[in-house]
Specification:
Mean pLDDT of chain A: 89
Radius of gyration of chain A: 24 Å
Largest sheet of chain B: 6 strands, mixed
Largest sheet of chain A: none
Strand order of the largest sheet of chain B: 6-7-8-3-9-10
Oligomer: heterodimer
Helix content of chain B: 25-40%
Strand content of chain B: 15-25%
Number of strands of chain A: 0
Distance between the termini of chain A: 60 Å
Low-confidence stretches of chain B: none
Shape of chain A: globular
Mean pLDDT of chain B: 88
Strand content of chain A: under 5%
Structural class of chain B: alpha/beta
Largest interface: A-B, 22 and 29 residues
Low-confidence stretches of chain A: none
Number of strands of chain B: 10
Helix content of chain A: over 70%
Structural class of chain A: mainly alpha
Order of helices and strands of chain A: HHHHHHHHHHHH
């Protein structure tokens, strides 16, 4: 009679399966819950503080109604786009080098620098740019801010790029080389597109991370109260605004900080959806 | 309606007029070609011709070095840092390992089809076929269209895909994907086509389609094929080289090698006593 023990075993395994599944769901909830709470609070509180003036007006004193944050939104977008360009290009280049030329002599150094950069507090990256750029040029500027943000993006993009490029099957490279294509062509036109969704995810991770940074912008972009499309000038960023306004005594400013947090979150969300959509369309 | 051929008993090719080997044109030739991985010898001291517009089969048991040898013929080992090559591989009088020879130029003349179908994952059927031309800088639509149609005809895939050239290459079946890869290799009009066990991942019907293809393709290109299927070598090839433990044991016309092998090791292998 072999059936009975087999059945007993089966029932026990099914029970374990349910228990484990339950634990997994519980664990996921514990991880996701704080995120949802934060997002929920930002949406609820931020939404009530948003009005048209928020998008159409720049800084004004509290006595004059407090104005809006158009200058900060524009500054954030411009500075982050430039940062994406800087961090994206450097990060992609480094990731390609590490993945596609694994025996290149600069790789061990590159890896150490990237790890260090990853571990370095954003504040220190701001100080580096302050020393190199702000002191040299003699002023705060959006470009300096973008450089600091780009520096934050580099290691994130680099690691993500290296990882997803390594997932592209070796056969894709062989097929391209077998057609008589030069190696750089194969990498740029065949390997990179095959990994595009992963590369975009890496870029977006870096972008989102940089968009939320306030500290390094303090001594690089410098902040501003005026609308300005020229990144050669001092530039405001939403992350800076949130930090400054949240510390002000006026309840209006605190409300505006919540609204700024919501707008920043939405900007990152839109950028990430846009990136998804662009890769999907291919 | 065309006569259906039963799959099991394929007609023996009609006896061809006797060609004298001395009169054949040699497309490629290796002279004492050896491939090392680090200090370990992969395949050693191979000297053999690859005749123009013929199919040359490389057979032998697993690990005998036949694939290693094949990949040395278009400098694919350049990508493996520990691999290094000695001897010569001569294409139309030029040693492809001579200093100053660009491996990219070599691979443009010597195409390759791999063991597993490997269409470019993000590209359509059409773009897969013309990928080589496009990325080499050919942009004129009429040229690309012409090349795509010609290559797909040559690889016997045209009728199956002509209505869905914009579908992803990955949407095809395994056998179709492999013929797509053959079309892709043909589109850049190579002189030599290296095939590394092109049918080992395919079902019998796809295998037959590709074998039939080789017979017609050799009018345009010279083919060297690695296979561990002796029947396949016997069916499709004009010349055969038998490899064993990194050494070319015997090379000769396929008929001779299979019916009257000179080396007892070849005989042992083809009569199925080992391998």
């Amino acid at each position: 009679m072999m059936r009975a023990p087999v059945n007993g075993n089966l029932r026990r395994r099914q029970l374990w399966d349910k228990v484990m599944l339950g634990l997994l769901i519980l664990g996921s909830l514990i991880v996701v819950a704080p995120l949802l709470l934060v997002l929920g609070k930002v949406f609820v509180t931020g939404f009530s503080a948003i009005n048209l003036a928020f998008f159409t007006q720049d800084f004004q004193p509290v006595e004059a109604g407090g104005g809006g944050l158009r200058h900060a939104i524009i500054g954030t977008v411009l500075m982050n786009l430039l940062a994406l360009l800087i961090g994206g290009v450097l990060g992609l280049a480094g990731g390609i080098l590490l993945s596609e030329y694994p025996d290149h002599p600069v790789n061990p150094t590159l890896r150490v620098i990237s790890d260090l950069l990853n571990g370095l507090p954003a504040l220190l990256k701001g100080l580096v740019i302050y020393t190199l750029v702000v002191i040299t040029t003699g002023r705060f500027s959006g470009v300096a801010g973008a450089l600091a943000l780009g520096l934050i993006m580099v290691p994130i993009v680099l690691r993500a790029t290296e990882g997803v490029l390594k997932l592209v099957p070796w056969s894709v490279r062989e097929a391209g080389l077998g057609l008589g294509l030069p190696r750089w062509r194969v990498i740029l036109s065949l390997v990179l597109p095959a990994a595009s969704s992963g590369v975009i995810t890496g870029l977006m991770l870096g972008f989102a991370r940089a968009a939320g940074e306030a500290a390094p912008l303090y001594f690089t972009a410098g902040g501003s109260q005026f609308l300005n499309f020229n990144l050669g000038q001092q530039t405001e960023s939403l992350a800076l605004t949130i930090y400054k306004y949240a510390n002000e005594p006026s309840p209006l400013r605190v409300e505006q900080a919540w609204a700024a947090a919501l707008v920043l979150t939405l900007l990152v969300l839109i950028a990430s959806l846009l990136a998804r959509w662009v890769t999907r369309a291919r | 309606m065309e006569e259906q051929r039963p799959l099991t008993s394929r007609p023996v090719p009609a006896a061809q007029p006797v060609e004298r080997v001395e009169n054949l044109k040699v497309r490629m030739q290796t002279k004492s070609l050896s491939v090392y991985y680090g200090k370990k010898l992969g395949v050693g001291n191979v000297t053999m011709p690859i005749y123009a517009n013929k199919v040359t089969a490389l057979i032998g048991p697993s690990g005998c070095g036949k694939t290693t040898f094949l990949r040395a013929l278009n400098r694919m080992h350049d990508l493996t840092p520990i691999a290094h090559i000695e001897g010569e591989a001569i294409l139309d009088g030029q040693n492809i390992y001579a200093p100053g020879v660009d491996p990219v130029e070599v691979r443009r003349k010597i195409g390759m089809v791999f063991q597993r179908p490997n269409p470019f994952p993000t590209l359509t059927i059409y773009d897969n076929v013309v990928a080589g031309l496009k990325l080499l800088g050919v942009n004129k639509k009429s040229i690309l269209d012409e090349a795509a149609e010609r290559s797909l005809h040559q690889s016997a895939l045209w009728d199956e895909v002509k209505d869905r050239l914009r579908a992803p290459g990955m949407s095809l079946s395994g056998g179709q994907q492999q013929r797509l890869c053959i079309a892709r290799a043909l589109a850049v009009q190579p002189e030599v086509m290296l095939m590394d066990e092109p049918t080992s991942a395919l079902d019998p019907i796809s295998t037959q389609a590709i074998e039939d293809l080789m017979t017609t393709l050799k009018e345009h290109v010279t083919i060297a094929i690695v296979t561990h299927n002796m029947q396949q070598a016997a069916r499709v090839s004009d010349f055969t080289g038998y490899f064993l433990t990194g050494e070319l044991v015997e090379f000769g016309p396929t008929n001779t090698l299979f019916t009257a092998p000179k080396d007892p090791r070849t005989e042992a292998y083809i009569t199925g006593r080992f391998g």
